[in-house]
Amino acid sequence: MKYTIPEQEIMCSGHKACQGCGAALAMRYALKELGPRTMMTFPACCWSVIDGPFPYSSVGVPLFHTAFETAAVVASGIRAGLDARGEEDVNVVAWAGDGGTFDIGIQALSGTTERNDNIIYVCYDNEAYMNTGVQRSSSTPWGAVTTTTPPRHFKKERKKDMMAILAAHSIPYTASASVAYPEDFIKKVKYAKSIKGTKFLHIFASCPPGWRSAPELSVELARLAVQTHVFPLYEIHEGRYYKMSMNPKKKDIREYLKPQGRFRHLTEEQVAHMEKMYDEKYEWLLDLAERSKPYFEAKKEK
Amino acid sequence: MSDEIKWTKESDMPLMAMSLGRMTVNKTGSWRNLRPIIDKEKCIKCGICWKFCPDVSIEIDEEDYPVVVLDFCKGCGICVVECPKDAIKMVKED
Amino acid sequence: MQKVIMGNHALSWGALLSRAEVIAAYPITPQTEVVELLSNMCADGDLDAQFIKVESEHSAMAASMGASAAGARTFTATSAQGLALMHEVLHWATGARLPIVMGNINRAMAPPWTIWTEQTDSISERDTGWLQIYTSSIQEILDSVIQAYKVAEQVYLPVMVVLDSFVLSHTNENCDIPDQKKVDAYLPKFNNEYKLDVNKPAAYGGLTGPDWYYELRYKIQKDTERSLDLFVETGKEFGEVFGREYGLVETYKMDDADTVLVTSASIASTARPVIDAMREEGHKVGLVRVRVFRPFPSDLMRKLLAGRKKVLVVDRNISFGMSGAFYEETKAALYNVKSSPPMWGYIAGLGGRDVPTNVVRDMIDQTLSEDHPEGDIIWIGVKK
Amino acid sequence: MVAFTRIDEEPIYIRSKIYEPDHLVVLEPTLIGAIDVTEGLKPGGWIIINSDKKAADFSQFKGFKVATIDATSIAVKYRLGSSAAPIVNTAILGALSKITGFVGLDAVRDAVREIAPVKKDENVKASEEAYEIAEAEQEQP
Fold first, then answer.
1. CATH number of the domain residue C358 falls in
2. A63 interfaces chain C, CB cutoff of 8 Å
C-alpha cells in the first residue's frame, strides 16, 4: 500500500481518549512525523489523562507532565538542558490544550516565543475546558454552549485569535492544521521540525462529548470546519507573510453547526451573524495572503 | 506490548511517578458497543480507515487489507464514515 | 583566592564553581546582582551555561524544572514576591524529584511595599519539600551553594540557600573563592539517572491514584530525613577539603550553658559578641544557630537543649495566629522530652528592623529575669 | 542614604547598622546642616567631607577631627559619572586611607582596580590624587 502519511506509530493503543477523540488523532499524526527523538511537556489538559495513569504511558517518547501554565517554559528549560548535554537534534514539543494556551499558559508561551526558544508548541484546540467537563475558554467560539455558558446565555464573545498573537511575536513559523487533513498536518510538522526558533501549530481537534456530536463524525466535522471557512488552514512565516494552505469553495456553515449539540439553540438570525463574522475573518486572511505572494514567490526562486 | 506492572511494596516503585510500561496493557476493546466489520469485496485498500483511526486500531495485513484490532478498537465509527466505498459497517457487539 | 564580594555575588560564585549548566531567573530587588553577575559570567565565557531570561519567577522555576529534568545542573535565585509566585512549581520541583539549587534572599512580603529583610517568604515555603539552608556570612553563602548541590543530587530533592536581604545580600565581605579543581573533585559531574532520555522514553508525573501516591510521599519524607546525615557528611567533607566545616546547626559556648539562645541567619551572627560579653559578666549563656531548617534537625535540637534551664528563640518571621517558625519547631522538637526547658519566643527585626547587639542583649536579659514566658509571642521594640 | 563599614583584623560578626561610629565620611556636603551627621560619632573621630572648602570652615564640628577633600572636582576631572552626578567614592577612598592610615595606597589601588566596573585607570588616578592632596587637619577646638 502507498501510505500518504508516515507508517511509523510512536503513540500506542490503549490510551484513555474518548471514542472519536481528535486530540488522540492529532498526537498520532504529530509523533509519526516527529519520530522517537522527541521530548514533550504536557500541562493540565485532556492529554494528562489520555496518556494513561502512572506507571504507564502511551506517547512512546519522554514526557514531562507539568503545571497548567508552564508547558512552553518547561519545554524551554528542557531545550536548554539538552543543549547543555549536547543533544541538539532532539525535538522539544510543548503539547497543550486551548485552556493551557489561550488562557492560563499565555504568559509563559509569550515569554518562550519572545525569546524564540527552539521548540515546537502545539495547541490542540477543542474549544473549551473539556477535561474538567466542558467549561468555556477564550478559545470557545461565539454561539457555543458549554457548562459555564448555558443555552439561555451562550458564549457571546468571539474566539481569541491565537495565531495572530503568536505571529505578533515575529516567530519563524505559525500554522493552523486539522485532524481532517493529515497530509497537510504532517507537512507542517515536518517544516516546523526543520527550522530553528519557536514554531506554533494550532490544531483543530474535535471533541465528541464536548461538542455534543457523534464520535463517528469527528473527522467529518473537522473537515467541515475548514470547508465552511470556520477554521481556515494557513501558515504565517516570520510573523508577517500569510499563506493559505487550501482555499476550498465555501460550504454552508449550517452543515458544520447542525450535527453539534453545542450550537443547536442558535436561531437562524444568530447563525447568519456567526457566518458573517467568519466570512469577514476569512476575507481578511485572503487579503493578507494575497499581499504576501511576492515573499513566497521570491522564496521559491531561491 | 507491555505487561501489567504489579508492586506489593514501596521499595518496588521508582523514586518518582515515572512510567515503566505502555498503555497497551489497557485493552480498550472492552469499551466498544459497536464493532466495525470490513467487507473485503468492497475494500479498495486505500488505507483511509487506517489513517483516521484515533486508537491505532486498524492494521494493514500482508495483502494490504485493513484489519480491525479488536483488543483496542473503541468502536467510534470514524472508519465507517470516512470509508469512500461504504465497505465498513458497524454491528452490535454480542 | 581571597576576594571582597557581596552576598549576592557569593551566590553567583557558588553557581559558577558548581558548574551550573542552566540558569533561569527573573530580576527582583534585592536579588538582581546574582543574575547580573551570572549573565556576565556567561557572556564572558567563564561560565559555560545556558541562561534563560524568563518573563516571571513562576517561569524561572518552571524552566529550571525542565532543565533539571533534562539532566542539567540548574540554578536560580529569587526573593519574597518572586518566591511566593513560584509556590505552585516549588511543590512540582519536589514531587518531580529535581535537584535544583535556588538562592532566596529573605525579603519581607508586601503589602505595604518593602524590600528589607524578613524570613516569612521562605518560611511560607517550608512545606513544599525544599531543603532550606539559612546562612549567616558571605563565605557561608558561597560554600552552601556547592554543598547544596552535593546533597540535592544524592537525595533528588531541591535545596534553597537563604540569606538576609541587604544585611547579607549587599554586604561586602572578605571571601575565600575556592579553587575550581578542588570544587570539581568535591562536586563531580552529575549523572541524573532519572533524566528525560529518548533512549528510555518514560512519562514523568502522570496521574497517580491513592493506591501509590501515598508511597511516593513516603519516599520524599524518607529521603528528606536521609538528607540530615548527608548535610553533616558533606559539611564535614567540605571542612576537610576547604578548611571550613559546616553542620546542621552551629553552636557557640554551649558546653556549660544554662540559658541558650536559638536563632538563625544574620541575627545569630550578631549574637556572638553578645554571648561573649555576657560570658565575661559571668552569665552562662550559649548560642545555637539553626543552619538547616528543612529538614528540621529535631534530634540534634533535643540533644542540645534538653536539660538546659532556659531557651529563648528569636525569629525574624511570623506565622500569623501562631508564633515565629523557629520557635514553633524548636518547641515541637522538645515536646515529650522529660527535661524540656521553658521556652521564650521573640519576634524581632520584621521588615528589616535592625537587630543590633543591644536588642539581642535585651531579649536574653528579659529571659534571665523571668521564671516562665508569658504567652507564645514576645514582641521586642513595638512602638507603643 | 547611609552605609556602614566595619574594619578589623579579626572576623566580624556584628551585622547591624553602626550607631556609634569611630569615624564619618560625608559624600554629600549639603547634608551637613540638613541633618545631624555627627549623631553618635565618637568624640575625637574623623569627619572626612567631600567639599572644596577648608577643614577650618567646618568649625561647628567641635570635639572631632575634620578633613576635607574636593572629591567632586577630582571625579569630574577624570570623568567619573557625569558633571551633574559625579561618582566620588574612589576619590574619597584615597583621602580616607591617607587620613586614617587604615590601609595603604597600594591596597586602595588594587581594590579600586578590581572593583571599578569601568574606567579602572581613571578611578585609580582619582584615588591617588585624593591620597596625594588630602591633608590631615587639626582637631577642632
1. 3.40.50.920
2. yes
Alpha helices (H) along chain C? 7-17, 32-43, 57-69, 80-95, 120-123, 138-155, 180-186, 210-242, 265-280, 298-305, 325-334, 357-369
In which band, very low, low, confident or very high, does the pLDDT at C217 lie, cut at 50, 70 and 90?
very high
Cα Rg, chain D, nearest whole Å: 15
Set of chain C residues whose Cβ sits within 8 Å of the Cβ of D16 = 270, 354-357
- C206 and C150 part of one domain: yes
**Residue A229 touches chain C, beta carbons under 8 Å:** no
For cell 472519536, the residue is A20
pLDDT for res A2: 83
Tell me how close the Cα of C198 comes to any Cα of chain B, in angstroms: 14
Distance, CA of A217 to CA of A213 (rounded, Å):
7
- Contact of D41 with D64, CB cutoff 8 Å: yes
Domain ranges of chain A: 22-301
CATH number given to D24-32+41-133? 3.40.920.10
pLDDT (mean) for D38-63: 94
CATH of span A22-301: 3.40.50.970
C188 and C324 assigned to the same domain = no
Structural domain includes residue C384 = no
Chain C residues touching A95 at Cβ < 8 A: none
pLDDT in tens, C287-313: 999 999 999 999 999 999 999 999 999
Beta carbons of A80 and C66 less than 8 angstroms apart: yes
Q: Which ipTM value was assigned to this complex?
A: 0.95
User: Within this chain, do residues C205 and C267 fall inside the same structural domain, yes or no?
Assistant: no
Topology given in CATH for the domain delimited by B27-92? Alpha-Beta Plaits (3.30.70)
Range of the domain at C85: 2-242
* Interchain pair C273, D13: CB under 8 A: yes
Range scoring the smallest mean pLDDT among C44-48, C138-142, D121-125:
C44-48
One domain for residues C223 and C344? no
Neighbours of chain A (3+ CB pairs under 8 A): B, C
pLDDT band per the 50, 70, 90 thresholds, residue B75: very high
Contact B13/C215, CB-based, under 8 Å?
Answer: yes
The minimal CB distance from A25 to the residues B2, B25, B54 is found for B54
- Among candidate residues C197, C224, C242, the one where a domain is terminated: C242
* Domain total of chain C: 2
Pick among B43, B45, B53, B56 to test the A interface (most A CBs inside 10 A): B56
CA distance C216 to chain B (A): 6
Let me know whether C198 and C315 are in one domain: no
Instruction: Please give the helix or strand (H or E) that residue A96 lies within, else none.
Output: strand A91-97
Residue A106 at interface with chain B, using a CB cutoff of 8 Å: no
Q: With an 8 Å Cβ cutoff, is A217 touching chain B?
A: yes
CB–CB contact B16 C95 (8 Å): yes
Quick: pLDDT tens for C323-380.
Answer: 999 999 999 999 999 999 999 999 999 999 999 999 999 999 999 999 999 999 999 9
What are the pLDDT digits (tens) for A228-247?
999 999 999 999 999 999 99
Distance from CA of D28 to the nearest CA of C (A): 21
Q: Are residues C263 and C155 in the same domain?
A: no
List chains touching D (3+ CB pairs under 8 A).
C
Q: Quickly list DSSP for A231-296.
A: S--EEEETTTEEEES--PPPPPHHHHHTT-GGGTT--HHHHHHHHHHHHHHHHHHHHHHHHHHHHH
- pTM of this prediction exceeds 0.90: yes
Contact call for C204 and A38, based on CB within 8 A: no
* Residue A31 · residue A37 · CB < 8 Å: no
**Closest listed residue to residue C68, CA positions, set C81, C85, C50, C80:** C50
Give the residue from C208, C242, C276 where a domain finishes.
C242
Q: How many CB atoms lie within 10 A of CB B60?
A: 16
Closest approach of chain C CAs to the CA of B91, in angstroms? Answer: 34
Neighboring chain B residues of C97 at a CB cutoff of 8 Å: 15-16
Q: So what's the pLDDT on residue A136?
A: 97
